Amino acid sequence: MFRGVYEHQIDAKGRTSLPAKLRDTLVGAYDERLILTTALDRCLHAYPVREWEALELSLAKRNPMEPGVKTLMRLYVASAQECPLDKLGRLLIPPTLRSYAGLEKEVVWAGMVKVIELWSREGWAKAQEEARQEATSADVMKVLAELRQA
């Protein structure tokens, strides 16, 4: 499971290092490949290939003309690109994905259980502030209570 928040630099070529703890989880449970795609928030999602393929298989069983399915395919699947780690544990983020998420000099990696989010530093700060405002909502508290009982 991916967890934790890590700040890293991104170089002029668009490479950034996958944080060691996230890399250990990736290599230990999967392999050294990630699928990067645009998220609905202004960030990127990084899936281990096996998790991504499971998502695609589930999606393939759905009616592609269903509005939510078609939109998900256009926004999420069509943008997806496989990005293997190099020998130094770096990931080359394609220019279109960097542009979408506003990744320039600093990136924030956020472990989200089965997926990793990549944010610009500013985007992450804004998302955290929004999450803190929502954290007091009844819906969030209900989910947390359900998880504690499971």
Walk me through the structure:
The protein is of the alpha+beta class and about 150 residues long. It has a single domain (about 5-120), classed as Transcriptional regulator MraZ domain (Chemotaxis protein chec), CATH 3.40.1550.20. Helices cover about 45% and strands about 25% of the residues. The chain is built from six helices and eight strands. It has helices at about 20-30, 50-60, 65-75, 95-100, 120-135, 140-150, and strands at about 5-10, 15, 35-40, 45-50, 80-85, 90, 105-110, 115-120. Strands 1-7-8-4-3-5 form a six-stranded antiparallel beta sheet. A hairpin with a 5-residue loop joins strand 3 and strand 4 (about 45-50). The protein is globular, with a radius of gyration of 16 Å. This is Transcriptional regulator MraZ. Pfam families: MraZ. Its main location: cytoplasm. Belongs to the MraZ family.
Topology record:
Blueprint: E1 5-9, E2 15-17, H1 20-29, E3 33-38, E4 44-48, H2 49-60, H3 67-77, E5 81-84, E6 90-92, H4 95-101, E7 106-112, E8 115-120, H5 121-134, H6 138-149
Antiparallel strand pairs: 1-7, 2-6, 3-4, 3-5, 4-8, 7-8
